[in-house]
Amino acid sequence: MNGRPLTLLIAAAVVALEGLVALGLGVYVAVQTLIGAPDDLISALAVAGFAVLVGAGLLWVAWGGLVKMERWGRSPGVLTQIFMLPVGGTLITSSQPQLGIPMIVVAVAGLVTLLAPPTTQALYGDGQASDADPSRR
């Protein structure tokens, strides 16, 4: 596994899954916008474009950051999980627990694996060589 702990691989998989879902939803909204008759074409395309960008960004974080063991990958990963928690809670209170509960479970799994000690060790090492080693910046 090239020194990648299981927690880091799971975290990368969680972030990649979130990226794929966002990308898929963005493409779906774009297609539905183009074949349908939206009330506001510009807003619908903007939402679709934003979802595609978020999805692509999360896939980049998963692959370019976490799988490649770059420290910068953890921050956007953690931030994504933090944002997902209240969205999942809102879905639950909006009578959509079938969407909210899995979202919260995935977000918690992402947070636990991103903040796990083996992930921290893999991304940051022991903390002593990080200032001296330019390859870890």
TrEMBL record:
Q: What is this protein called?
A: Integral membrane protein
Keywords assigned by UniProt?
Membrane, Transmembrane, Transmembrane helix
TM region positions: 42-63, 75-93, 99-116
The record lists the organism as Nonomuraea thailandensis
